[in-house]
Amino acid sequence: MKRAGIRDVAREAGVSITTVSKALNGYSDVKPETKKKIQEIASRLNYMPDANARSLGGKPKLNLAFLVSGLVKKDESGFVFGMISGMYQASLDHHFDFIILTTNAAKQSELSYIQLCRQKNIDGVLVSGLNTNEPYYRELMNSEIPCVVMEGEYKSKNVCGISIDNAKAAYDVTHYLIGLGHKKIALMNGKETATVSQRRLRGYLQAMEEAGLEKDSAWVENGEFEEEEAYRATFRLLDNCPGVSAIFCSSDLMAIGVIKALNEQGLSVPEDVSVVGFDDIPAARYINGGLTTVAQDPYAFGRAGGEILYHMINDKKEYSHIYMDYEFIKRATVKEYCPKPRS
């Protein structure tokens, strides 16, 4: 049986091909009764639109992708899936197709990121969690494919970064702890290759330097943004930084691991050590009576990223970097520094 085409649907409905395309793609300028009629005819004829076909008078429907690393691992913080939800909403708002690609798909097919995008007919890509030192990453950033880097930045013609001001957020947290009398403030940072980790380290060091406090590399540990790794790193930190009174963690998940390790060492939060997280995951308000943290909205990130990429391609708009809002939320895991009396 010959597969029905868009012309067959248009002929039976008594409308133009453009009207059929608009009706099936959710455009609002088609009368509801006409849209319903076209949808019923398309369903009866088993018409399936070609994802690669051109529509609306020769204008292609955009095919955008989210290229992400680590999606196969459990996203305990929910941040990545929050971004995906926002991106999907942007696809509904602006009528573009949206798919998810993982770096594993590229590795399993032995394709570069550019080759993977071309194989899938991708017009533009949002990226997150990729190793910025990889040649494939730099190749993608310097290609003709429009890109939006989530939680990062990259200076290139077709690239826009979107993030909070991570350096300022880290500075704000460290400055707040200093204001409470803390001097031995440690940083449990994330992956060294991650732009967010580098920016948060910069803000932390700036605040320490401005206050005239010691900056010791032993006070900075790498928890890989993971609870278990931060748990293990805390024991190293306690050995290398005796008398630490506050630990600033680059994620709430790491803060959970840090608090667990502190408790096992007989240290109470915040009586002995103050702890600050980052992200404000749903569980944050229940951790240790409420975790002091920096809140950012992954849904807003994803939706803004999808909209920016759409306008970069559809409207030829140029962006450099977009800063999103954040909020420093003060809860129960931080207190003013009180020196312990000598025994």
TrEMBL record:
Keywords: DNA-binding, Transcription, Transcription regulation. Residues 4-58 form the HTH lacI-type domain. It comes from Candidatus Scybalocola faecigallinarum. InterPro entries: HTH_LacI, Lambda_DNA-bd_dom_sf, Peripla_BP/Lac1_sug-bd_dom, Peripla_BP_I. It comes from the Bacteria. CDD domains: HTH_LacI (cd01392), PBP1_LacI_sugar_binding-like (cd06267). PANTHER family: HTH-TYPE TRANSCRIPTIONAL REGULATOR GALS (PTHR30146:SF109), LACI-RELATED TRANSCRIPTIONAL REPRESSOR (PTHR30146). PROSITE patterns: HTH_LACI_1, HTH_LACI_2. One of its GO terms (molecular function) is transcription cis-regulatory region binding. This is LacI family DNA-binding transcriptional regulator.
